[in-house]
Amino acid sequence: MLDLPPDLPRLRTLRTWHEQCLREIDRAIAAAEEQARAEQQAQERRAAATPPPWMVGLQDITGTPEELHQGGCTMWAHRRRKTVTRDQARELLAAGIRACEFCKPDAELGFL
C-alpha cells in the first residue's frame, strides 16, 4: 500500500494535489472525446459529400431530363439535377437522353 504521512495537514495537501491531478485528467479526457467527436463528424460530412453515382440534368424551364452525368461530373454543378439509380440511368440512355461528353456515363454503363 501507499506510505502516507500520519499528520492531517500533509494528508490534506496530498488530497488537494490528487484532486488537481484528477481535474487535469478529466480535462484531457474531455478534450480527447471532443477531438474524437470532431473527427467522426468530419468523416460523416465527407461521406455525405460523396456525390451520388448518377445524376440527370433537368431542363431549366420544364424540368424534363436532358443529359445524364456521373455523380462526380462538374459539368452539371450549376444546373438543376436529380439523382437516379443505375437502372434508371440505363433506362434514360435507352430512351435517348444525351450522355455527357466529359464524364461519359454511357461508357460506364456499357452504352457505346
Please give the structural blueprint:
Blueprint: H1 8-49, E1 54-58, E2 65-70, E3 81-83, H2 86-94, E4 98-99, H3 105-109
Parallel strand pairs: 2-4
Antiparallel strand pairs: 1-2, 1-3
Detailed description of the structure:
The chain is an alpha+beta fold. It is 50% helix and 14% strand. It has 2 domains: 8-49; 54-109, no CATH class. It has helices spanning 8-49, 86-94, 105-109; strands at 54-58, 65-70, 81-83, 98-99. Strands 3-1-2-4 form a 4-stranded mixed sheet, covered by helices on one side.
Strand content: 5-15%
Q: Overall 3D geometry?
A: rod-shaped
How many beta-strand elements?
4
Structural class: alpha+beta
Summarize the structure.
The protein has 112 residues and is an alpha+beta fold. Helix content is 50%, strand content 14%.
Which features would summarize this protein structure in a list?
alpha+beta; 112 residues; 2 domains; 3 helices
